[in-house]
Amino acid sequence: MPDGCKLAAKIWLPEDAEEKPVPAVLEYIPYRKRDFKAIRDSKIHRYFAQNGYAAIRVDMRGSGDSDGVLEDEYLPQELNDGVEIIEWIASQPWCTGNVGMIGISWGGFNALQIAAKDTPHLKAIITVSSSDDRYADDVHYMGGCMLTDNLSWASTMFSYNSLPPDPAIVGDKWKEMWLDRLEGSGLWLKKWLQHQRRDEYWKHASVAENYEAISCPVFAVSGWADGYSNTVFRLMENLQVPRKALVGGWGHKYPNFGGEGIGIDFLREATRWWDRWLKKIDNGVDEEPMLRLWMQDSVSPLISSCPGRWIAENNWPSAKIENQEFFLSKGRIHLEEDEIKNEDMRIRSPLSVGLFAGKWYSYSESTDLPHDQSEEDGGALVFDTPELEEDIEILGSPEVELELESDQPIAMIALRLNDVCREGTSTRVTYGLLNLAHRDGNENPAVLEVGNTYRICVKMNYVAQNFPAGNKIRLSISTSYWPFAWPAPEPAALTIKSKGKLILPVRPKNKEDDKLSYIGEPVLSEPIKSTLLEPAKREWTVQHNLATNEVKQQIINNDAFLRLDDINLEIGKETTEVYSYLNNNYNTVRGEVESTRSLARGIWKIKTLTRTVLTSTPTHFQIRAILDAYEGDTRIFSKSWDDLIPRDMM
To answer: Where does the record place the Xaa-Pro dipeptidyl-peptidase C-terminal domain (predicted)?
Structure first.
């Protein structure tokens, strides 16, 4: 880099690239190319090299084997480094000068963000599971409510940032670099909680602030089980460049890792995109429908499959879709408003509503998907249609308009749209959250005046779903959604008026969908060699101790313990998350995440332990955290945090 910082890269090249230069594809993330992402990377980037591209994986400044300290997400330094990396790649003798970026999650974010900078050699990007608005649609906040994945994700990076570079790469300075990281990376959760509204901190690197800054073609990808599907539709609506969208039945993964019956041949689709914009091959990609989407069929919530079919839209918004209004009365959803009598409905939900909600950015595994929503509905207001006489298919963002009062100045509302089958099981289709202090926007929240009536509109996440004849459509409304989202400062009761509206984006079936080309089964390149030392362990349990009235949700997320054979390096990661409360008391709500990571080669053995605990009072959040680092059996670093952060109408 211009300031002398060295960034570590791994490069896959076609065998003759030195004699016949090729375009290049960059993935630029903080997830350690040499160890924890080495197997995944080899399956993807080797494929690109085998298909005529230079593939480059760069460890971000302060991560993996790169110099420096990583202090937060999407800092100006990160984006400036990204521009420099692209210019370096374009100048290499094996590169034609045309560069693309690909990335999922963090890498999808910075692909968009770097595309919005002056980067002349960046000719196209593929952004997977990313966001154009860092406040509205990321792991931190949703509808002005704090997601507990804010804690989970902060703890993931806390753990990642605690690891050293590999001495085999950086030499004797590895320990000095490690200590700099341990001391300097900081507690990111504290930074994120200091910005509880959409301020300049979140506007930075949110490309929604200026879509016109993006001047290269964009291929946007997500999955319905992921938390990032909304961005795809906003990008298609607002960008002015050649663009394409793909949303399938998978979760927070590249689609080629989607799992049996869910994944697709995504690397072929990616290569077709690169062929069009990096090699200028007229292969028709830019003449295909703008959006290709998986229309989900009705399915039991007790299994993780995602049946359905592919559909397509040539443009977004689509002229085919009609917003159909339904009206709410006590327990019912009606087609006509005039058959409803005026009647108030009151709800104050227990904290148990949300225990079966799954994860915000699900990996589409059986452990983290939403369970049967019948488990949640005892603490919610529930509205059902009669059994449907014919199929209803929706594509878009369902909306709910309500008139309500609150008995507290700060309250939240959670809405779920469910598919209820004749047997009674209830599958969550989509959902929306709103901190009612954010009813008029996320930049300038305002408390509610107790006794006043407010008209609100809650937009749910985008979805494509078929509700079959014989099933019912259900809307469920609750005042808590724990531990999916952090609860309001005090329990609130909402009084909801009759004749609220449920607005569904109804899409008629289109015979043209049947003519779509086959998108293929997942294909991956051969991975690097590894030896399994201990299998992965995934568990998700809910416990209610009837003697103490303590409720816990415990998540075990241990990766496989492996040896990477080529570099003789053993790697391990174990994580446990626990979310709990006692006696339905909001002051006892607690989230705790503990992670252990290890690296070992011969006598060189490294282990780090991170633990973060988040609690709250009506006025403050409290963070307690520890970081311990071991070289062999000797603890060489220890640090703790104990911070109070005022709640800002949150």
So the answer is: 271-520
